[in-house]
Amino acid sequence: xxxDISSTNRLxxxxxxxxxxxxxxxxxxxxxxLLIAQLKNQDPTNPMDNSQLTTxxxxxxxxxxxxxxxxxxxxxxxxxNTNQSVxxxxxxxxxxxxxxxAILVGxxxxxxxxxETDAAASAVTATIKDSDGNVIAQLDLGPMxxxxxxxxxxxxxxxxxxxxxxxxxxTIDASNDTGALKTTPLxxxxxxxxxxxxxxxxxxxxxxxxxxxxxxxxxx
Length: 220
Known about the structure:
This is Basal-body rod modification protein FlgD. It comes from Rosenbergiella nectarea. This protein is α+β, with helices and mostly antiparallel strands. It contains 3 helices and 13 strands; from the N terminus they run H-H-H-E-E-E-E-E-E-E-E-E-E-E-E-E. Helix 1 runs antiparallel to helix 2 (24-41).
């Protein structure tokens, strides 16, 4: 650390550095040990440079400041994660729109469906199929802007009859003057629970499996 220390003192300093850590406190102790050794062994006709001493002290103080900042940031990060976990539990019991193509038809209602697109569409069509892949209904949704859109199918088939209870799938076709647009179909699910993980919260969607927070496109 100090350039004028004798070879004996260098070996002593190396052993001290190896035995101790690299924290600012360890470096301060090592610095003081080396400084005392240099003061004892320096040439009176060529004393050590004060500017070097000042620079090394400044570097040690900077390291101490960085360590304190890291400790503070770690504490703040922990508080943020705790607050996010509490907020995520508020989703339990709510309906969300996540990527998927399922529509459930019950005796009195159907679950919403939707889609997401990055560009405005001049025409959008939703095609609903049964479990055998047969087309049972086509819905003209008209022009749509870019973003997320959610719809409610009343369960009426193309022949004006009512779809029996069960699970159906939907595909979305959207286009504009440039041609066909890429769309992501969305399905409705209820959040039954939230599990914190190292990479973020995971939502339990029951029969729909799990989803992460970034997969939620709408909260209903």
